[in-house]
From TrEMBL:
SUPFAM superfamilies recorded: NAD(P)-binding Rossmann-fold domains
Source superkingdom: Eukaryota
Lineage start: Eukaryota, Metazoa, Spiralia, Lophotrochozoa, Mollusca
The protein's name in its UniProt record: 2,4-dienoyl-CoA reductase [(3E)-enoyl-CoA-producing], mitochondrial-like
GO molecular function, one term: 2,4-dienoyl-CoA reductase (NADPH) activity
Classification via InterPro entries: NAD(P)-bd_dom_sf, SDR_fam
Keywords from the named record: Oxidoreductase
Cleavable signal peptide: none
Pfam family, one: adh_short_C2
Amino acid sequence: MALHRCVRSAATRLFQQYHNRVFNDKELLVDTGKTQNQHFSTSVSCLVEHSKYFPAKTSLMLPPGTFKDKLAFITGGATGLGKGLALNLSQLGAKVIIASRSQEQLEKTSEEISQSSGNEVAYFRLDVRDPAAIKSVFDSIESKYGLPDMIVNNAAGNFITPSERLSPNAFTTVINIVLNGTAYITLDIGKRLIKAKKGAVFLAVSADFADSGSGFVVHSACAKAGVEALTKSLSVEWARYGMRFNVISPGPIETKGAFSRLDPTGQFTDRMIQKIPVGRLGEVGEFSNLACYLLSDYSSWINGQVIRLNGGEYPCSAGMFNDLKALTNEQWDTLEAMIKSVKGS
């Protein structure tokens, strides 16, 4: 017990020294002759270098024709992650319907994907905050195409701001798009599916801070936490009707729409990479492959789950001592000598 207290005390003191030095630009890190800036430049280089062991494979993962004769509906399908998923589903044989508020972007994306896959991509201009508009769209879809086999709730709205600057209107807007929009879509189409005795797969897109919480995006954290609760609840209740519900929680994947609001200057990208153990950002194709798998019959026993796709960023951010990965072997030699020299408790 005394030895345990001794080691714990030594570790606490050493980590405090390390922490103080890491965050003090004027001090050295464990006296190796390197300033903090030099040290972190080396650390970032190492991270980028070892990312070669984790190359992004973005080619189609599933067999051709996986989604033949299947109908997919995707909100936020004209840009970013939704667009990437729409492309993959279409390439794998699905009839895809994308929805978004931008008519111009819908037309552009529909044509682009159709030319690439050879399959028609339909689209509807839709504000997911409006239940009446949702009903009208699904009336049209059901009449012309039938009920979807796959429903992806990807529409989102987020931005960074100190919470003391967050207005009630801004908070409500994000809640209405992310949480209420997902609920309106899910409940409308779900009731139709139950009536028709038809099964389907639902997939929502969340973020790790729905679980952990996060400063400066409290509006989005609250909304996405609600989406995850909705998903888990319905995965239990509606499985008896032939429906599965899952969530993908992606880490940093650079898309123009998201990064323009969350990292408008681009200065935080390197810091994000430092927090990702595999040493790189994710790619849209990686998200799309995982999403296609979760929407396919290959995953028919996966239900009510939140699947994290983040290169290890979430557990890395949670561990108290994970910043020690920035230390070099030389610095560890010094620290181990300090630990061995500790006497008493």
